[in-house]
């Protein structure tokens, strides 16, 4: 077994370089497969725990090795999917006159790709010519030598074929014994265009077969040569483009299916149709080749195009469950890692798979994309916040398709999070703290918070929401220090968004106001406003001392309080709600020495006081008592939307500014990245507080 | 002569079969001893000797005291016999029984032993059961030694064989000799210890040897020696205090047995003395610190009645505030055990310990670890000692009070204190001598003696407490610049707890000062905060809350007999509520304050109650669910008690007849009586019913209906503390209950497709990739791939050609060979 694996690896190294490249790329982002078993173990453990007893605290001791995404891993069991059904070479009518046409003209490089390989190849070629000449001279000089060489190579070949036998038994490489392997037919533009014409106009099946074979060869080009040989890029492009854009239509026409029909029932219909038996290998050949192409190519635009075309013929893919699984797997990885266009194209496929092909596929899709999302979150600093947002939103979209099931999933996931948090609260161990204060954990919460916010209007998600709020409270309670300011800000934002989407009351004022009382050694002066607070969870120490940190704190306090107050600004108990925050803000105003901050606070206080006065005046007029809930709830509700008082405008202004700022920051991020790095480097050179600028520390890993 | 005395003592009316305890405590005995103090000395002298007499002889004595002692002797011998019998089944050392104070024997079973030995290996913990630990240490050591011995025997055999063969190995042997010496010392220790335990009287001299071994240079040996000595001493130390015979007594003629006994006792005592001295000396070295402290603590806990207790106690108290957690915990545990098991030493050790701690606090200017005061919480004062005690306590505290008052006026009251102390000590000393003699005879305790000791303890405890309180009141600059801002008053919290616990024992005359002190402390933060924000004088909110709580406890414990106005504390508390911060301050303290100050308050001040209700309602809008629950429970309590306050629940358009002088509510007022809360309406409840926590929202709606529902009978509700604890985050089980999953139903629209439509994707709109672009990219891709394959092909060929070229050399050689052969 080991030997076989080694062989296979060697083979891959030799022949599948681009795949290897891809693998390397994705490996960095995905958890290695080897850890999957472990994950499964955890999952089964958790399954036991969550089961009937609903997870008493006893389980907390094995929390340590529980991973956050264990809940989702259940869908990943079918890893070792069968590659057994081959996309074998389709036998052609060799009598076909069009194939026999031989183009003898060896077309030399008429196009030059500006790759480094051209130069390299030239050099090697020159070298080769020299050596060959030398060898020939030797051979001429000594004819016995050529005999000796022949016998030598023969012996080597025997040994090679002998060892090759292992390889052949490998189902993955069964293309080796393809009958068409040996004969390489060169392809030209004219042949291809002729075939295309035949297929589109006359619906010639044998031409289609040839086309498919050529397409297959094109898709496998570079990895191994099967059947056809491409002379130049034109033919290659033509065949790929033609097949990708037209194959779906061709097949649909053959099966007489409308292009809009994309329901699940269509598959059954398809399978029952008489033509299915004949055409099945053709369809399969096309799909497998396309999938292969997906794994082969690295360029995002080709991938995106292929994706969209594959999405169109999803119906056919569904007829082959194993292919569908492979497609989902490939798509998910592209979705997670790809650029914007590719990612959205991939998501469209995932969504279609999930919606059209029933709950089973929905399950696997949700599991896989959640795992992929969390895997992407396993970084110390979020660089591409927008992409992660996109990923999160698409998961939420997918989950919203079946809120019932996904809320069950969410409940499981959140109880997992809760257990980890409980473990952390009880033991206060360093590992626990690290595990909780990680983007993986935070993004998981973020995901469910958004999910709840999106769906709480239409569904009863109260238990889920309650749990989530408790976890968030626990998080804010556990990480109270100024270094965890970004995390706290996130907690407050979550609570606010949950509160505003569901209409329930969640007290956040104390969390917000605590930010004002951070005990930081004031240093002031140096302003380093290049630092983006939202990209980390734990701030570096040097930042705490800067003036901009103080400003950032106050700004977010005012923002968050504005969100909170804006929500309840017309509630009958607003004056009481604002009372304690007002007291503490006034105190802060007295203490603070910075004129700028003081002015901001003053303005905020004034506006809130106006609001308080307004409500107080209005409620003095009402006749009902606090226990009359209905009247209390309807208090000022009519005015709420149309209110044009200065304070509401103020809140709105603050919120707008905040959203603009965050947008700006998102855009600024990528630009500032190199500069920031440079700055760090400079500081390190200077040797200012080496420890503070330690990269890991800056990323917020170290405690 | 001795016999004569015994006859006098013998009470004729007592039947001989009465239990020894009854007789010991009988008043007549006490009376008799009190009356004939001079004779009591003889009695005690006689005892020590007669023990030996009667133990060695066949028992034929009727005297009760002697009988009891004799019985004890006998019991002590029995276990030894039994061990010998058991020796076949169980290893004798492992099977050694533990004897508790009341003379019961506990035999260990073998499996239990093994388990314990394992658990013992981690030496760090085990603060609670020193007895066990030490026993186990011994056991473990034995096991180890046995193994080592076996190995050594094997080694020795091998070596014997080897030496016969080669003498070169001598050098190796020399190297090994150091190790061997160590080994042999270990055996020696083990053997001596075994022998001592088996028959202490005949082997008593080997104590000296063990002591010598424990002075070895090797650390392991020293530790082992100290520990085995500890085990031995713990086992063989008698249940009485040894008093060496005076010269006069030594001149007298005595029997052989008595002589033997005297020798035994003096040897034991001198060895013990040396051991204790060694421990105390070694305690200064950091290497042996933990071992010696462990030994000292164990000894103190096990044999507090025995000689040299003072030295042990001094060492323990010296380390009670140690930075080393292990050492400190050990010391605290041993002092605790002294306080709890007063029967072992008759309370003397308690007095000494308390006085020493008081002295320590004084010398360190209150900058100690909180644990050192925390131990006072384990003191127990027997209140049933009767009236005389009270009068004496009164006396004491009167003295103290006058002293304290002086202290308040002029800070240097120490000389006065010192004088007092010396006098007290003198008295104690003289009495102690008498007492010791008496106690040795009877084990019973004089009531007045106990009273005296208790009052001494009390005075020392309160002296410490007041010292700490006064220290906390001092302005910052004087207090301490050593420890800095962090926990500037480390002792304050345990001290306040202690005052709260023992407040019923404080003299009434003294109460006013205490209250003043507490009042100042409670208001400490608010006063100084304007001046200096970061000063270390700034008490934390928890500490200030605790001050309020203690003030109320003191009042309550004295049945509200005091005429002190608690209004100030209410004002402080009213403002402290706003100062509270969830993460920083202890919510439990706040909940306790709510309970004691508001729920249990018997006074009915409507104005104040309304102010607190309003403030707590506002408070619960800002903070987490635990705090909210505690506040709401308190509100409910208050509303139940103050019927008129229920007006807050109704929006009375007229302003309300009950509203006081202040017509409008002042939310920012700092005095509850001036806030005019009666004029307000509890609108907060409306928002609280929307609270995310179901408990809070149901509680809020429950409160809001109290006004209309007229049923006066409310079922008992939980205390704020309970409510806080139940909903605090640590306690909260994050697990959902079973029914939640079922109730996970759709709320309004059940239409799946509808929601599907609603969340249509926004990604759809993104333009599809341009075909031309794709074509271009494909071309590039193709070229790249082709070049790569070409490259591979060329490389392959190149390799082959070079290989062929290389092969030519080989070919030539071969050819030459064949040529040569031919």
From TrEMBL, chain A:
Low complexity composition bias: residue spans: 86-96
InterPro entries for the chain: Noc2 (IPR005343)
Main location: nucleus
Pfam families: Noc2 (PF03715)
Residue stretches of biased makeup (Acidic residues): 76-85, 162-178
Cell compartment(s), UniProt: Nucleus
Entry's family note: Belongs to the NOC2 family.
Protein name, per record: Noc2p family
From TrEMBL, chain B:
Entry keyword Nucleus: yes
Keywords on record: Coiled coil, Nucleus
GO CC field: nucleolus
Species of provenance: Forsythia ovata
Chain ranges of the CCAAT-binding factor domain: 545-700
Name this protein carries in UniProt: Nucleolar complex protein 3 homolog
PANTHER family: NUCLEOLAR COMPLEX PROTEIN 3 (PTHR14428), NUCLEOLAR COMPLEX PROTEIN 3 HOMOLOG (PTHR14428:SF5)
Compositionally biased intervals (Basic and acidic residues): 407-427
Predominant location: nucleus
Coiled-coil parts of chain: none
Cell membrane among keywords: no
Domain of life: Eukaryota
UniProt family annotation: Belongs to the CBF/MAK21 family.
Region Disordered: start-end pairs: 389-427
Subcellular location: Nucleus, Nucleolus
Occurrences of domain Nucleolar complex-associated protein 3 N-terminal (ranges): 185-275
